[in-house]
């Protein structure tokens, strides 16, 4: 089995080019038809056009990230069965073009959340950061969401008000724009008014109902993916806590077990993101990799570092370099290589794609103006570190196996 080195690319407008990806050592490209609206079928013509662009650079499009799930599907709003069929047809079309690893997520409204996209990193360069107090200030005093104060509690609300009052107009504008930025490479950046309106579409949607929609989605599209040999790999919540009064259902090991039970087999798989899951101290990442290894279809390898200023149970954190921070990526890679050997023993020769997820802005990254968290040099460093760590883990495990076979 090949551990396939991949690189996320946001399409022809990405400031980090396919040539950069190839020179960094990637062989597979992770991308999507970001220009298409949510819910639209990805046609074979559009897929093959993007494939041709990637192949012209000497690379192969091997992973879709992301085939978006509409909010109508998540909330079962009118029109959701049509959206599920559009998703299923896109799965069929991708498979017919030879692309059989598809990442998606089940996060309401926002597919990630940060409060600073250009924070100074501890050892130089810049990184992305989530400050729970800044987020509370946005929720309470910019968005002015109903019931936010009772959810945050009196102490957090007072601290957030003090933080908010100290912001200059320019700082407040930057915080607002950062939170409403949306997924890098996406086509949507919300306003305060649009966010409030979309939040209203989730009124009355409980955690159990959001899970129920996910279960129904998997039971509907799972057979399609199974028929076409596709792995649907759900991404964890980022960060793995409820946001803006919206439930999160892909945050813990218990959540992942429930999801994998909804449809058996490899068609229902995981995008195991060590950065997103690692924000919570109660997530044992190495144990999760060990438990879920057979159902991991795609690996996002990065590390976050928790800060001390948590607010009302919500962690503050920043993106650390790949081999530092709170995620034990060396230990995780050892478990991944063990799974590689297990699959090889059982004759599974399919590749397991991984990518150096996110990266700090280093050297001339700031001049290039790439998508937030996706610089060239920072990711090149991350992929090089991961490549070396995988080689180390491979040799270590082979040595142990050889010693165990000695009489």
TrEMBL record:
InterPro entries: Man_deHydtase (IPR004628), Xyl_isomerase-like_sf (IPR036237). Its cofactor is Fe(2+); Mn(2+). Keywords: Iron, Lyase, Manganese. Pfam families: UxuA. GO terms for molecular function: mannonate dehydratase activity. Catalyzes the dehydration of D-mannonate. This is Mannonate dehydratase.
